[in-house]
Amino acid sequence: MRRLNKKKALNFVKELDAFPKVPESYVETTASGGTVSVLAFTAMALLAFFEFFVYRDTWMKYEYEVDKDFTSKLRINIDITVAMRCQFVGADVLDLAETMVASDGLQYEPVVFELSPQQRLWHRTLLLIQNRLREEHSLQDVLFKNVMKGAPTALPPREDDPTHPLNACRIHGYLYVNKVAGNFHITVGKAIPHPRGHAHLAALVSHETYNFSHRIDHLSFGEEIPGILNPLDGTEKVSADHNQMFQYFITIVPTKLQTYKVSADTHQYSVTERERVINHAAGSHGVSGIFMKYDISSLMVKVTEQHMPLWQFLVRLCGIIGGIFSTTGKWREYLLTTKNKIEFEMIRKEKLKSHHMTPLSVATHFLVVFKG
Predict the structure, then answer these.
(1) CA dist 338 to 6, 333, 345, 370, Å?
(2) φ/ψ of residue 281, rounded to 5
(3) Which residues, other chains included, contact 233 with Cβ-Cβ below 8 Å and sequence gap of 6+?
(4) Which of 95, 123, 280, 305 is 20 to 30 A away from residue 132, measured at CA?
(5) Distance from chain centroid for Cα 372
């Protein structure tokens, strides 16, 4: 009984077979069919190989939403070298509420302003990358995908002993400020508290020593991520006058970065620059120094690295294989039909010419050849 049921089930499954089987005696192999098969398998192998590289690749997805975090602090990462001695300059932040932010996280290090040959090569390479980023914004995706914690992005140390005197001051470190618009500035004299804001003690500094030529090795906002280049990294300005003002107007956009290598809350920013000479007699008023006025956008960008799912890769792979099989099958059928028609015409002409066969017998012979 069990054998009978099993046989019935097997027969039922055979009836559902949608792929008819042709007896081997009816199958004929030809050189054209073999050529088409070789071409088909070669095309399938190449397309499957390239599709695998598409599957391995990732892309960045950008989403926008309102930034609802107003209570946390904003971190400013700074590494700026000014062509003045450290005792002559001071750096601090004054926000929109006229609140002076403590600059305890900043360090003042006497250095040589001129770069060594190795440092100058590194600096030129950085400027070249920055120029490419301004021209091709898609390179930013490459930087996002290849960020590595601990990757060296700062100016390399000098490889030689400086013979020049320490004529510059490297101001580096970080500050925590409120998430409101503010002004980070470096000017003459150390900052001192004031009831209506703050002031800098610059009376004891001679105007002849003013030189706000500077180099911004690094300036970022939020969590510092080595490997990410910021718009002002590598900027170098040379002052043409003692009383020179450099202004940078910065718009900060909060950014949540989620890749397969790093996950961080950071900030991107755009910047416009302006510089002018302070000349009160000519109506150009102000204070000599470096001023970075920043404002924070209310929108937040979520940057997520995405990957093609496995099921989608398999579907695309099946589409490639099935499409090539279908196309080559139609092509081979067309070649075989054309070949049979040519053979029929040749046989018909030969038989009619020799009067050994009538047109009806030739047609009957063609049907036999064509179906076989």
Answers:
(1) 47, 9, 11, 10
(2) -65, -30
(3) 126, 130, 153, 216, 217, 218, 219
(4) 305
(5) 60
Q: Phi and psi at residue 194, in whole multiples of 5°?
A: -150, 140
Among 170, 190, 185, residue whose Cα is nearest residue 246 = 185
Measured distance CA(114)–CA(167) in Å, rounded: 9
Residue with tokens 């003045």: 84
Q: How many CB atoms lie within 10 A of CB 7?
A: 10
- Calpha distance 262→147 (Å, rounded): 7
Q: Are 65 and 300 in contact (CB under 8 A)?
A: yes
Contact call for residues 183 and 35 (beta carbons, < 8 A): no
CA distance 198 to 195: 7
Measured CA to CA, the distance from residue 176 to residue 103 in angstroms comes to 9
**AA identity, residue 368:** V
Which has the higher per-residue pLDDT, 104 or 353? 104
Say how far apart CA 206 and CA 192 lie, in whole Å.
19
| Statement: the pTM of the whole predicted model exceeds 0.85 | no
Joined tokens for residue 292: 């970075």
For the segment 242-290, what is each residue's pLDDT rounded down to a tens digit? 888 999 999 999 988 888 777 878 888 999 999 888 777 777 777 888 9
The number of CA neighbours under 13 Å toward the Cβ of 158 is 11
Pairing of strands 235-237, 168-178: unpaired
Tell me the CA end-to-end span of the chain in Å, nearest whole number: 43
Nearby residues of 280 by Cβ (< 8 Å), 6 or more positions away: none
Q: How is residue 278 annotated by DSSP? A: -
